Amino acid sequence: MKKEPFFWVTISCGIVIMAFILLPLIEMMTAPSLAMLKETIKDKDVVRSIWLSIYTAGLAALISFVLGTPLAYLLARSNFTGKRFVEGIIDLPIVIPHPVVGIAILGVAGKNHWIGQIFSELGIRIMGSVTGIVIVLTFVGMPFYINAAKNGFESISPRLEKVSRSLGASMFSTFFRITFPLAWRSMLIGIIMCSARAISEFGAVVIVAYHPMIAPVMIYERFEAYGLKYSQPVAVWLVTICLALFLILRILTLRKPREE
Predict the structure, then answer these.
(1) Burial class of residue 216 (count of CB atoms within 10 Å of its CB; 0-12, 13-18, 19+)
(2) Does the structure show a pLDDT above 70 at 257?
(3) Of the candidates 29, 256, 68, which has an alpha carbon nearest to the alpha carbon of residue 152?
(4) What's residue 152's pLDDT?
(5) How confident is the model at residue 260, as a pLDDT?
(6) Does the predicted model carry a pTM greater than 0.90?
(7) Ordered structural domains, the chain, with CATH
(8) Helix 98-109 vs helix 130-154: crossing angle, to nearest 10
């Protein structure tokens, strides 16, 4: 059967987009030699920065899971005045320029703000600390978790929960025995998306905590000081971790084909 021109237009656009995404990444991934990659991963500073990125991104995902799950469930199950407004606020960190995020967080956590004064009295330091990094990564990553979890809860029929409640189960029992087991895939996807977004953050982190240095900040510093040759190997290792996260994400989102 002869293909229509529109089909070839879609194929051509797809090829251009795939090339646009893949060519720079392939070039970056293949530029450093294996010897350079081995030497880089033996660098204690590099390992420390990559581990700090993974650790802080994981903490951000955990915080998003604990605090974001109840809100995601509320948004999925309830219709209330201002719901769209709340959803818009949740998505704000996605569209705000990330250096602005860092400046905004410092404005609240600084000594001139009452919240910053409370932190100071409690001995909690935000600027130039792991705590500050985690706060920033949670800020930019939480929308991805909440939206994924919300979609998962919306895909579950409320009738199942109503049946459980009619049999005398509490809301907590219903959630952990019925809803949670059915939505775990979406929640795990949200955790992975939150972690992947957090681990790649640079703009907000560099404002709040240049040191201790996470991997994106180290890549920037090495590029500024030494150029591509010494920044690319660190970037390759970081991209490899991000690709692994997204590979897991794609595997989890695979659906079994429906039986005819």
Answers:
(1) buried
(2) no
(3) 68
(4) 94
(5) 36
(6) no
(7) 35-253 (1.10.3720.10)
(8) 120
For 10, the token pair is 């879609």
The first and second tokens of residue 132, run together, are: 């500050």
Alpha carbons 99 and 101: distance in angstroms, whole number:
5
Cα distances from 185 to residues 9, 67, 104, 162, in angstroms, run 36, 18, 33, 22
Amino acid identity, position 25: L
- Tell how far CA 246 is from the center of its chain: 11
pLDDT digits (tens, 9 = 90+) for 90-131: 999 999 998 999 999 999 988 788 888 898 888 888 988 999
| Residues 20/12, Cβ–Cβ less than 8 Å | no
